[in-house]
Design goal:
The radius of gyration is 49 Å and the shape is elongated. Helix 4 (91-99) packs antiparallel against helix 6. It has 163 residues and is mostly helical. It has a domain at 91-162. It has eight helices and no strands. 1% of the residues are buried.
């Protein structure tokens, strides 16, 4: 079997080859996106019109700012409310307040019933009893002054001091 070339391609002339190569070069040159497509986005603008327009967060406030200070404008100063000052109680008033303290009464009842106190309760009780002692010394009261009133009952403060 002999191979015969039944179809032979006609040879192209040099001029035809040059024209084809120029045509291919032109196609390759226009292969990518057009220049400036990063910022122009003509295709995206068409799509954005149909969608909701998103406001750019980089753009600041549009409220006008006065560049010159007007002395005629009324400026309202914000008045700070002063903190309520703690009223200074006299030692007698403070002592009465401590004696009428319901939390202190509850803790003293627990102690009388031999109940156990938490650390917080114990510190609260100790601080209040110490303050009562200080106020009584400041006012000049002694334990002898209150023995007549108790009719033989011992003072709870003195009981706690002993234990």
């Amino acid at each position: 079997m002999l191979k015969t070339k039944s179809k032979q391609k006609p040879k192209k002339s040099r001029q035809e080859i040059n024209e084809e190569s120029r045509e291919l070069k032109r196609k390759r040159k226009h292969k990518g996106l057009p220049s400036g497509s990063r910022f122009n986005n003509t295709d995206n603008n068409k799509n954005n019109n149909t969608q909701k327009v998103v406001k750019d967060p980089r753009i600041g406030s549009k409220t006008p700012i006065a560049l010159v200070v007007d002395t005629n404008t009324n400026t309202t100063k914000v008045v700070k409310q002063p903190k309520p000052k703690k009223t200074v109680l006299s030692p007698q008033q403070e002592l009465e307040q401590l004696e009428n303290d319901p939390k202190l009464d509850m803790l003293l009842d627990l102690v009388e019933q031999n109940g156990k106190l938490t650390k917080e309760q114990q510190t609260y009780l100790d601080s209040r009893l110490n303050r009562i002692d200080e106020l009584m010394q400041e006012l000049g009261y002694t334990d002898d002054d209150f023995e007549d009133l108790d009719d033989g009952k011992e003072d709870i403060v003195s009981l706690l001091k002993r234990s």
